[in-house]
Amino acid sequence: MTPLVLASGSVIRRQILEGAGVPFQVQTSGVDEDAIKAASLNLGPSALAVQLAEAKARAVTVPENGLVLGADQILSLEGSLYDKARSREEARERLSRLRGRTHILHSGLAAVRNGKTIWTHSQDSYLTVRDFSDAFLDQYMEIAGGELTASVGAYAFEGLGAQIFEKIEGDYYAILGLPLLPVLSLLRREGVIMA
After folding, report:
1. Could you give the CA distance from residue 24 to residue 44 in angstroms, rounded to a whole number?
2. Average pLDDT by consecutive 10-residue portion of the chain (195 residues)?
3. Smallest Cα–Cα separation from 31: which of 11, 6, 57?
């Protein structure tokens, strides 16, 4: 079987692959995401997410014929793009801005083998945040802890963060940051898992 390397430090992406029974190793890329974003101002958010995923996958070294999977996610709201919040205060501002609005999570994936990109995929999910109270926000901020700075939306959709939503349109795994079914199809085709 072909060895797979996940070029991501995301705990939830690891859990998704583990849950699906996929054998893999993790190697974080250490790419300068800010530099890539600054050089890619002409790209839309979906294309940017794919470009970041590809940069991560290309930055990782693996055994010959090994497959590297890179992933990234961009949040857009009314024309503005967002990264992970860098502080609790920034997370609070983010959640307040999302309140009562619909935002888009743009998931980008790229697979690299022997230094060449062999596959890319993008998938958008639309999430409507309910118009929650300030008291709820206070309580959420107190309980959420590290989740506030671990994702672009300042929420963990698979846990407590589900409480902030009114409606979603999109794939559950894509919302978490790793659209699983397209990945499994790729992994079967590339000999990582059985077809």
Report:
1. 31
2. 93 97 95 91 94 96 91 96 93 97 98 96 98 97 93 93 97 97 98 96
3. 57
Is residue 32 part of the annotated active site? The answer reads no
Catalytic residue among 72, 124, 131, 134: 72
Residues whose CB falls within 8 Å of the CB of residue 97, separated by 6 or more in sequence, listed in order:
77
Specify the number of domains making up the chain: 1
The answer to whether residue 194 is domain-embedded is no
Is residue 152 within 8 A of residue 74, CB to CB? The reply is yes
Which residues make beta-bridge pairs with 71?
109
Question: What CATH number is given to the structural domain containing 185?
Answer: 3.90.950.10
In this prediction, residue 65 carries a pLDDT of: 87
CA 171 – CA 46 distance, rounded (Å): 15
